Structures are given as C-alpha cells and as structure tokens.
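Fold this: Meteorin-like protein
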Amino acid sequence: MEPWERGLAERLRSSSILIALVVKALQFSSVYLPNYLSFNCFGLTHESHKKDVEQVYLRCSEGSIEWMYPTGALIVNLRPNISPASYKHLTVCIKPFKDSAGANIYLEKTGELKLLVRDGDRSPSKVYCFGYDQGGLFIEATPQQDISRKITGFQYELMNKGIASDLHTVSAPCRPCSDTEVLLAVCTSDFVIRGSIQDVTNEAEEQETIIHVGVNKLYRQKSKVFQLTGESGNWRGQIKTLLECGVKPGDGDFLFTGRMHFGEARLGCAPRFKDFQRMYKEAKDKGLNPCEIGPD
C-alpha cells in the first residue's frame, strides 16, 4: 500500500465524516469532497470539530449540499459576501432533494434546536424558509441499519425578506397586480416576456400549475428558462404558480413577469398585454415610469 493510501485509510478509521478540502478545488463552481460530502458553491471553508461534528461555511447566496452516508452531525453556516448589517434583511430557504434521507435538519441558535425537516419527510417540492437571524442549520444523522443507500441533500437560497414573502405567501401569486406593481415588476423581475399560454399542466400532488408559454418577445431573463426550440425557431418556456390560482389556457398575449426560485421560473404579475400597454403609456405620459421598456 502506498503511503498516501495508508494515510487515507487512517483518516477513514478515525472519523465518520471525511472532508478533504483542496485549495485548487475552490477554482470551480462545484467542490466535491470524495465519497461523502459535496457542495455546489464558491468560497467554501471548513472547520473540524470533535465528537463527529463538522462545520462548514458557505459564501454563496445559493447552492446545494449533498451528504452521502451520513453519520454524526454537520453544521452549515451561510456567510454571504455582503455587509453583516444586511443579514437582518435576509431570508434563507431550503428545498430538500426528492430522495433525501438519513438525517434530520434543524434550525440551531445558541445551542437550541428546532426541527425543520424530519428524516423521511416526502412532502413534494416543500420549501422551508426562515429569517437569517433565526440561526444556522444543524444536520444530524439518524440511526440506520444500513447507511450505504442514504443521501441527505438540499438546495438553498438567500434572498431579501420581501421577495421571499411574495414567493411563499399563498395569495400573492393569485391576486391581480395594481398598475404600480406591474410597472415595478417590469423593472425588478428576473424575467419579463410577452407571450401566450400554450398549455397548462396541473400537478395535484405538488399543488402547482405549470404554464407552458410561447414567447413572442423576450425582454429579459436571468436564467435560460425560455429557449429556442425546434426548427421553427419559436421560443418556449415554463412558468410555475400555485394550483389554487386556477390558471387556464386562454387566447391573447400576456406580459409575464416573475422570479427565479430554485432554478424554476415562478409567476409574478401577468397582466394582459393590452392592459400593460395602456398602463405603460399612461405612466410614460406623466413621467412616472420607474424604468424604460419597449411596450411592443
């Protein structure tokens, strides 16, 4: 056995969690910690603790964590590269992977634990949010007869409290937006498109509706949710909203706006395009437009 192999074997015997950090690995967006723990994030730092507890610090505003064969415990500290004075305005949201298992996820502050996600909870697409100042994440492995098939993992996002409230307030995506809200949404949304509803898919289990959108004009998009498809060169994309909003296929164009959330486009304000043209012109004539965008 080579010297490096003997050293690795010793580490495996002495610790139930292996975290091997290589400085060069931080040059990449995904940092893979062999066999046990992987992070999708820049700016990862690690701190060893006794009694099978490991501590990591993540500097990204969004990313993911995957813990294979969980034993012991893991403390996850989110430390975004912003002024600490801004922390009080942040909300943290986590979305467990569909097949996540093997550990409970707690909210921890000054030694007190509050159960956030119970091991085995299979609530589809469930998102758990809490104020940044409410504490960090403490992930504790549950006793298992066989850990070889267990993987605990989740995506996380840090966002402004106002945005988080809009995304997770049941009534917000369903009620019509005022003229002022529409004009602000045009300026601040992650995506703004003119398009039509091609089809609607209702997912009863997840209590969500998928709106299949044909895009006539793309004003802005943060991520490549809307893309050219097929030989016709038409733009297509999907937007999600709550099932209870009762979205149905219909004629005519809409101005779709919204936010990206865990890699998915979530519906914000969506007036009929002719209504948007009216409110945009009225605001422009009065010099009250918060930003400029071509209405046609």
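The first strand starts at residue 30 and ends at 33. The two ends are 70 Å apart (CA to CA).
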